[in-house]
Amino acid sequence: MAIKTPAGSIVDIPRGTRDFGPSDAIALKEITSVIEEVFARFGFSPIITPALELTQVLNAKAYGADQDKELYVLSGNDAALRFDLTVPLARYMAMNKDIALPFKRYQIDRVWRRDEPQRMRSREFMQADIDIVGSSSVSSDAECIAASLAAIEALGITRYTLLINSRPILNAILKSFNVPAQSVAAVIRLIDKMPKIGISETIKQLSAAGINADAAQEIMSFITQSMTNSEKLDKVAIDAPQSKPEAQRLLGLLDALSRYGLKGEVEVDFALARGLDYYTGAVWETVIEEDGKRLPTIVAGGRYDGLVGVYSKAGAPAVGSSIGISRVFDILGPKHSRKTYSTVFVARIGDEDYQYAIEVASKLRSRGVRTDVDVTSRGISKQLEYANSLGIRYVAIVGMKERGESRVRLRDMQEGTEELLDLGAVIEKLTK
Question: For position 397, which CATH number holds?
Fold first, then answer.
């Protein structure tokens, strides 16, 4: 909520952005730490790219109908905030031609899109991306999908459905219904909106876009029919013969994914489009429901074999998967309530005990114990109250007696117990 300063000016933050206080920031960092560890375990290496990219780089490949509207362009129009982490990767590959392929990279960072803010959709948000550049095999697709799903499972998100489709299959379906080639991209973007606007509205919008009303109805009936995964792929290979090679590839991808031991369900969904225009092969996203309602997706990705070639003559096949960290936080954040990293707070009875308090804190910190220390000269009761307000379990109290004996009085705020211990015993207790 905006507030007024004494001078009367408004103090606020831009729409679609937010602050993260200590407890939220700790939860966010814990989420990213878990994801990063899983990515590293799968053999992905980190890169860091600028928040700003040249507008000519971002506009070299159209990746959405509203791209120009959603970019945050800087004054002078020569640079803009990155829209995602995939285009910067393609640009990075073009500038670093000596990288050994396949290149397995991850990047965890913020991106910006100037669209309308709503629940779980912000203008500034964090993503965790993994990509494999230089391999066209199904195993690359499976590795990216599995790593991103293993990451959310490590965070405790195990009840999800992975929807998976293929752009070539969707293109073949549309061609079998005589959708003109020049209309395919627009039709795919409309189909991509179907989960939000419903089948009837999608048919209406397809008709408004120039697709015959009967054809629009038949398209939606075909892509939303209920069958098993293998039945769907068998049927599309017969009814849209051009899709047969990609249907076989998708079948191989499903088989590869079955070997990773993932906990969620996997469903072939011909209605899944993924709106970004640079996808050329398999596309996927997760579905999670909360109180019977479908939440915005937290894992999504696909194959984009043509994107690197936009920036380099050599080009390279590529595939990637992205986790929406900000959305994961919205699901998991309330479960995290830590307000500080500190395990122990060093409290001093009097000002004359300050030097000993710093000595105790320094020794604890040198042994890896996360330690806070009083810096205010407040009374001991206020110090205990402060430590309790932050949820710090242990308070190491030092006074004249403790200083004389080179010991501390360790209070367990949770159990309500207190022990007089030498520093070695405190370190042993707090590092177990």
Answer: 3.40.50.800
Residue 224, Cβ neighbours under 10 Å: how many?
A: 14
Phi, psi of 236 (to 5 degrees): -65, -35
Residue 124 CA to residue 110 CA, distance in Å, equals 7
What are the average pLDDT values for consecutive 10-residue runs of the chain, which has 432 residues?
63 90 92 97 98 92 61 88 94 94 97 82 92 97 98 95 95 91 87 87 89 89 93 94 95 97 96 84 93 88 94 92 93 76 97 96 97 95 96 96 96 96 95 86
Assess whether 291 and 370 both reside in one domain: no
Same-domain status, 90 and 125:
yes
In the 8-state DSSP scheme, what is residue 15?
A: T
Amino acid at 342: S
3-class DSSP assignment, residue 242 = helix
304 and 402 fall within a common domain: no
195 located within any domain = yes
The residue segments making up the domain with residue 419 are: 344-430
400 within 8 A of 350, measured Cβ to Cβ = yes
User: Considering the entire predicted model, what is its pTM?
Assistant: 0.89
- The CA dihedral of 93, 98, 104, 109, to the nearest 10 degrees, is -40
